[in-house]
Amino acid sequence: MKFSFKSKVDINQSLPVVVPSKDIEEQVSIKLKAAQKESKLKGFRKGKAPMNVVEGIYGPEIRQDVLWDLASKSFAKLAGERDLKIVSRPTLIPEQIEVGKDAKFMATFEIYPEVNLAKISKLSYTNFLCEISQEDIDKTITNLQKRMSKWEPSREKSKSGDQVKINFVGKIAGKEFEGGTADDFKVEIGSKSMIEGFEDGLIGFKAGEKTMLELVFPDDYGKEDLASKPVSFETQINEVLSAKLPELNEEFFKSTGIETDSIESFKKEIRIKLEEDLIDILNGKVKQSLFDALLQANDFDVPSSMIDSEVSNMKQDTARRMGMDLKDLKEDLFPDETFKEEAIKRVKVGILLNKIIEDKELKPDGDKVKKIIEERAKNYKDPQQVINYFYSDDEQLRNIESISLEEQVVDAIKIEAKSIDENISYEDCISGTYG
Q1: Which residues of the chain have pLDDT under 50?
Q2: Nearest to 402 by CA among 372, 359, 426, 361
């Protein structure tokens, strides 16, 4: 049995698979005899049909099944002998399958990439730093008030923080485009939910007035056919709404989940919550900076089957977050290309982290696992019951151990890599637009 193999640097591989004629005929004979015993053919008692009749009816299908079964087993044996890390089922292309001759196939497949990891000590990452100011706390409280506010019609000119109901017609080069027109569309000025300049262009108008917004779609706009193009929006202001904020009293504090009767203690509780959230946000930004540094220093090809699998996972996660039934997923709703770039990054990061885990022989840290579980359980009515659940369910425990390992890898990289401190504002930190 001949064997040829490309360099393991190449994730796309092929190798010839030869199945001896003797093995094929032996298996075909065994299966034909089994089929003869079970045969119920017209004109013959069960199991009494002549072999030539059975072979004429069942022979081609049996031979086909035997060929593919033996070829798959031969490939599996070859892969095992060479200790290949196969990440996709092989495609077996028949090159010779004549009766009486050895069958020959060409197997094409993908293997897990072998990565020569760049020295971690040469990596540099950004260590984001942020402090919460009194202004940040006041803004947070105002935002909480806005969420619970009542919107009332206003006769004043629109200003930042107001909502406006508008009709608009968008045109590119004088022609309307799909998705560029709406009636009674509600926009909150300052929410940054529209393209740059749109919301600012709605400031200073009363209900019934009109304006023309001359803007440009951003370069990274979601719809590629609109990206970077100049656009005009003929806009009519139908209604201006101003927020009537609730009073800062015990009732309001309670509605936010904080039991207190004074503004001072309310602010203290808000600061505690913001600081807890900030730790997670900063850790996430630092981790992403580390991963970006890893990706930049290590370039390698990724098996398409791994990318496809990650794209599928991301599409399903998106559907779940939208409350959709997975059976309703359609390609035109979530095109693969929308997720592909991010999927490639995720797969590459996973491969690099696994390499570091392997090189450093890291194992899940029991104390860290316990800490993660306790952190997740603390918000439940009976934390101990939740903790017991995690430790009693093997799958859930493995998931937590994977999270622990990722944190251990991040900690290991931080020790060796160079960090560059960078201060950012709280607003930039929570907006996700920085770092």
Answers
A1: 1-5, 7
A2: 372
